[in-house]
Amino acid sequence: MIRKLAISHSMEKPTCVILRRRLNGYIYNNTTGAEEELGTWNDSRMAECGVPLTNEKGNYYQAPFPEGCDDGVWDAFYFVQLGAERSITDRLISLEKFINGAASIEERCMLAAGGSAGRTIYATIRLQADAGIWNAGNEAIEEIGDWDNSRLAECAYDMDDKGGGYYTKPFPSACATAGTYHILYNDKLGSEYDITDRLIGRDKVLWFGTTVSDEIVPTGSRGMAMVNLRNLVAECESWQAWTGAADAEAAKAFLYVAAYYIPKDTELVKPLGVICRTENDKNEAIAVDSDTVGGDLELRLEDKIPIDFKEQPGNAELYFLNMVEAVLREMWTLSRQPGKIGINSITLIEGPGLYEETAGNFVNGIRLMINWGISS
What's the CATH architecture for 221-375? Predict the structure, then answer.
C-alpha cells in the first residue's frame, strides 16, 4: 500500500508539500530524494525540497509519500504557490502529521507547530481526562484555576525554532500522568505571554510516561456493525493520538473493514486496525419479538514496535498494551452513548505478540473478539 500525501481544498489550489522531520528538524529534499539539514531557507531551497501535488479529481490534490523519508514522524506543510516560481512567501494552508514506520516513543510524542519564521511559539498542554494543565515551571499537572496572563506565563511551554517556520519540542518527560493530551500552539505577539496571543495550531498526544475509493454503504446488520465499529474506534481520542490523525474522519484511514481475515503478515501501513468477521460468524436475536440483533466481530490492532524496544520484547509488549487498553476504555464509554454500536463483551483471541513482518522489522499485534448488539 502506497501512503499518500493528500489534501482536499475548495478555496485554494495547493501546489506542493514541504516535509520536516520532528526528531531533528531535517527536511526532505525532493531533488536528491533524501532527508538533510535545513540549511539556508530561501526560494531556491523551497524549489528543490517541495514535493509537487497533482490534481486528481475536483478539489483533491495528492502525491505519493516519498520512499526517501526515514522511519519517524514527519510534518507535511501544504503550500499554495502565489507567483510564477515557488517562494518561501507562498501561503501555508495546512499542516499534517505522518507517522512513517517504526518511530521512537520520543518522536511519536514530540510537539510540533508551523508558523511564520523567527517567532516565539509556545504550547499549552491539557489533560483530556480532567482538563488539568501542565505547569511548565512546577513540572506538574494542576487544575487550571483562574485563566489570566500570569497563569499562562506559568504554563507556557516554549517551542524550539528549527528554522523555516518549523517549531518542535519533546513532550515534557517529567510528566508522570498517563493519558490523552490536547496541545494548543500560540504565537507570542508581544514581550509578555498574553491569553489573546494568536492560536496557530492544535495536536493530540497519547502519553504513557515513557520515553480511498468510494465506500459501499452497508444495508444489512452485519455490514452495518462492521462499519459502525470502525466509526466507534475512529472516534476514540486515544486512537487518533496513536495514529497521528487530526480527527475521527482521518483516523478511519488506519482502520480496514474486511469481509474475511487479512493475514497478519500482509504489509499495510502501521499502526492499523482490521475489523472482520470471526471464524464462527453468526448473528443472533438478543430480544424476543424484536429486530434487535447481535453477533461477534474481530478487531485486530497492530503497530511496528518503537525502535527503543527492538531488543526489549517485554517492554515492547507493555507499551503496546498501554496503547490498546487506552482505546478499549474509550470504546466501552462511547458504546454506551445513544446511536453507537453497543458492545457487550471484549474477549482476547490471540496476543499480544511480536511477529517479523519483513527481515528485521517487527510488529506487535493483538486479536480481540467484540460481541455487539445493534438495532437494525
Answer: 2-Layer Sandwich (3.30)
| pLDDT tens-digit map of 108-127 | 899 999 988 999 999 999 99
- Cα–Cα distances (Å) from 100 to 69, 241, 288, in that order, read 8, 14, 49
pLDDT tens for residues 162-190? 999 999 999 998 998 888 899 999 999 99
Task: Reduce the secondary structure of 151-208 to three states and give it as a string.
Answer: HHHHHCEECEECCCCEEEECCCCCCCCCEEEEEEEEECCCCCCCCCCEEEEEEEEEEC
Identical fold for domains 1-101 and 221-375, yes or no, is no
CATH fold for domain 109-211: Immunoglobulin-like (2.60.40)
Give pTM, 2 decimals.
Answer: 0.73
What's the Cα-to-Cα distance from 136 to each of 140, 154, 172, 192, 209, rounded to whole Å? 7, 6, 8, 16, 16
pLDDT at 270: 74
Residue 158 CB contacts under 8 Å (≥ 6 apart), including other chains: 120, 121, 122, 136, 169
Please tell me the distance from the alpha carbon of residue 236 to that of residue 239, in angstroms, as a whole number: 5
DSSP structure class, residue 218: P
Say which CATH architecture domain 1-101 belongs to: Sandwich (2.60)
What is the grid cell recorded at 272? 492499523
For residue 220 the three cell numbers come to: 444489512
Task: Show me where the domains of the chain are located.
Answer: 1-101, 109-211, 221-375
Query: Judging by DSSP bridges, how do beta strands 292-304 and 361-375 pair with one another?
Result: antiparallel
